Each structure stands twice: as C-alpha cells, then as structure tokens.
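I am going through a labmate's work and have reached the protein record below. What it holds is a sequence and that sequence's fold in token form. Please read both lines and tell me whether the tokens look consistent with the sequence. Do not assume that whoever made the record got everything right. Thanks in advance; the entry in question is below.
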Amino acid sequence: MTRTWQISDVTEAARARIATARLAAAYGVPPVERARLTASLGAQLRSCLTKGGTWRLTLETGTASRAAAGPGEEVLHAVVTPSPEADAAGQPPWRVTVPCPEATADVGVGAVADDPAELAQALLGADEDTTLVLERLTEQEGLVDFHREELQQTNQGVVALHAELDAAGRAQREAFAAERKARTEAEHARRRLTFLADASAVLTASLDHHEIVRRLPELLVPEYAASVDVWLFDQDGDRPGPAHAAAAVVAARTGRPQYAAAHPGGLPGVDDQPPSVLAPDRPLLCIPLPTRQAPLGVVTLSPPEERWDPDDAVMLVELTRRASIAIDHAQRYQHNRDIAETLQRALLTELPAPPGLTLAARYLPATHGLNIGGDWYDAFRQPDGGVIAVVGDVTGHGLRAAVMMSQLRTALRAYAVDGGSPGQLLTRLHTFLHHLQPDLFATAVIARFHPDDPTMTWAAAGHPPPVLRTPDGRVQTLDAKPGAMLGIPLRQEIADHTVPMAPGSTLALYTDGLVERRARGIDPGIARLADALGSFGPAELDADLEGSADGILRPMLSDSERDDDVCLLLCHLSGTD
C-alpha cells in the first residue's frame, strides 16, 4: 500500500499529518511511536514550508529490512521529498520508519475532509495520542524519580561507607602510630638497660678507682654526653668550688642532681638551677656520687644535643650511682690493701748475717684481689748459736691473716729461745694455733743450721718441700713425709728430718704462690724451681745471692697471674777456700 500527498501550504501539511496519524493508527502503530511519528513529520513539514515550493509525502507499507524493526515485520515508511521544480530540488529526502505490529492486508483511509468538525475530531485524536504519551512520560518520570531517590540513598550509603572506611583507616593509622611509638620506646628502654648493664660490668671490673674515673667518660661520650667531668673530693673532705660550676657545688652540698640551663629541664628527680657562668651557652647536668655517708664527688655532663631525654637522665643518674659504688669499693679495697701490705712488710724483719751462712729473701704481694697478709718468712739466732730459717703461709687473706702471721712469728721466736728442734717448734705452733684460732690454719717449713753440725735439720707442716742444691750442682727435693697443717683439730707430733749440708750448698724455702699454677698443679712448679736453682754455678751463689734470688723469680713468675703472695728464702753455706 502506498499513499502520496502534495503539500504546498499549511492546510495541506495539516491534512497530510492527520492522514498519517490515522493511517498509523489503522496499521496498529503504538501510540507512543505514532506520536513520535506525527511530531517528527510535523516538524519536517514546517521546515519544508519555510523553504517554499511543493513537497511530496509518501507513505508506504512493506516488510522490514532495516534495524528499525525485526526482520520480516510489517513497517510503515514515511518519505518527504521536494518536487522537481522546488528550490530544494536535489536535496536528500527525509525518511522515517515505524513498525506496524497489527497491520492488515487492506486498510482504507479516506481523504481528510475540509469540514472543521472532522479536523477538530482529528486533532482530538492527536491530542489523545499526546495525552497517552504524556501519561507514559509521567510514568517514566516517576520511575526516574524512584531510581533517582534510590541512587541518592545509594550515594548516601556509599558516602557513609566511605566515612566509616575513612574513620577505620584513621583509627588503624593511629593504632599503627601508637604501636610504632610503643615499639620505639621499648627499643630505647632495652638499649638503655643493655648499656647500663654493660657499663656497670665495665666499671665494677676494676679495683683501681683512677681506672674507673678514666673509663666513665669513655662510656658516655658521645652517645649520652658531649663532655664528662668527674670531680672527686679530697680524702680530708675539702671541697673547693672556684674551678667547678655552681650547680656542681650545690649537688655536692645537697646530694641531689642539679640541672643548670637557661630553661627548666623537666628532668625527674633533678633540681633546676640558673645557667653556669663557666658554660652559659650549654646546659649542665651535675650528679653527685653518693655513698652511705657523704658524696664522693660530682659528675658534670653536657648533653650530646640541645637537651637530654628524661629517660636518658634517669639512666645517667643510676649509672652514676653504680659508678659511685664501684669507686667507693675500689678506694676501700686500696685502703685495706695498703694497711695490710704495710703491716706485713713491717713484720718481715731484716735477715741476720751469721758467719758462714748467707740469707736472701723475696716477698711479693698478690696483684689481684686483697690476697696479701698470708705469706711470711723469718730468720733469727738461737741462744746455742744455731740459726732458724722459716717460711709460712696462713690461710685466708687481708688484715686478719696478717695479724695471725705476726702472732705465729712472735710465738715461734718465743718457743725458739727455749731451744728445740724444727719439728718440736712446729708441734708447739700447731697447739698454739689450734687453741688461739680454731677456724684458722697455716703451713710452715723450718730449717735449723748450726756452725758445729755438718747436717741441716728441717721439718714441714703441710708446706711445699724445701729444694736443696749441693756444691756439685745436683738438686734434690726434700720430700720426706711432712706433718699436717698447723691448727687442724688433730693431735700430732711433727717429725724432724736431717740432710748433709756441705759448704757451697743452697737451700730454697718458698710458699705455693711461687710454684703452684691452677692449670698444672704444684709438682711441675717445684720441678721448674729445681731446674732454676741448678742453673747457677757455685761462684754465682757465693758472690751474689741477692741477684740469684731475682734470677729465680723472673723465670718462675713469667707465667703467673700473681693471684697469691710469693715468698722465697735462700740459705747458702759459704764455700771454703
């Protein structure tokens, strides 16, 4: 089916539009599509009339072959072309296609009457279509509003979710920051505790307070202080102040740490003071060295940066307290050592010089620990002309051992005045020590020389055996069975032993500090002493017994840690011409 209209004015355009609407309705074109078709056609016809001339509208039905409808479906084609004589001749035609789902084989559409009533009726039909389109549009607007509201609610939910996620992110970042801060603080605390433990071990390792004072700045600079000054008070309590900061003087007087700076330090347990005149541009932390009685001195520090961390300041105060304890212990140790060594040396008498007998003695106090006071030697004449030489060792160390040694020495001299052999003298000393100091023991070896006797008598009580060198250079250890230690809760009679003593012979009496080593025991040391004594010629011992004593000590002590006293007494019978 094909319909054609010639259009040259508005009336013809209106009739053609009405006819198109009726034909589309007759072919079952949906109202919405029909409204679109008529609206689009009306706009095109107005454009054509504006250009002038005669235009032709062609409506035809057929089977769909384009994308506007499904394949094989009936469609309605509308084509507007200019007439050949129009000004727009040659212009491409205007086309539109709509589907006709209810198309019939023959649809009759009469000509549009010129009657106004019929035109009005046609317009009313078009208005119905427009109304239907408007209703559809209203429905679509409702759907759009509904979807817009849903979208707005969704957006609000997304915004709220984003806000929650942002808050969760901030909380997580804050938790991470707090965890990092806590981890950092824990690491700093661990580092401070490790440093405090290591520094304390270093300070307490020495018993020389000068060494402790020297090591303290080495430990603190540059990590915890830029400079360290240790001010130790004099023994008489004199505390001069002109060369020290005023805060240090206050710390010495009050016994409290002081902080001298232009601004308060806010350090726990530390008093604030004005800046020091000696160092106005840098803060100073003055910490006293406390003891039970009074401070030993003051440690003055300047910070490695602008100021100290409060925790670092607490650690510095604690380290100074530990350094004070170490210095106090070292000074007390040195004081007691000096007293004991002075007492012991005062009790070691000068050796006699009897005819035909030369004596040489060496005493060396231990260099490690308060071990002085136990070893001793003595030599003196008896009323009958004999000479007693003795070397002993009191168990224990320090002042008590030195005092006990002096009592044994005095008792031995008293017993020897009445005469008696070495074994008898040791037996009486054993009884004396057992009753005087039941919990204290001693060892001793006594040798007796007499100018009219070609033998030497000796006795030992728990002591290393004497070593004898004969004139021909042979060396023997006098290891006959000795008695037990002096003072043990046991009744004993200590036996005498004799050995020939020809002129040119040399006897060595000594304590275990000369020959005993922890790793090897005492026997190898005695063998080394025998070798050292045998290495001298008779002329050397006759000419310089003192030098020979030094010549024995040097090789014997080359491997010694000197953790015990060393005592050596050489007795040499002069050779005959």
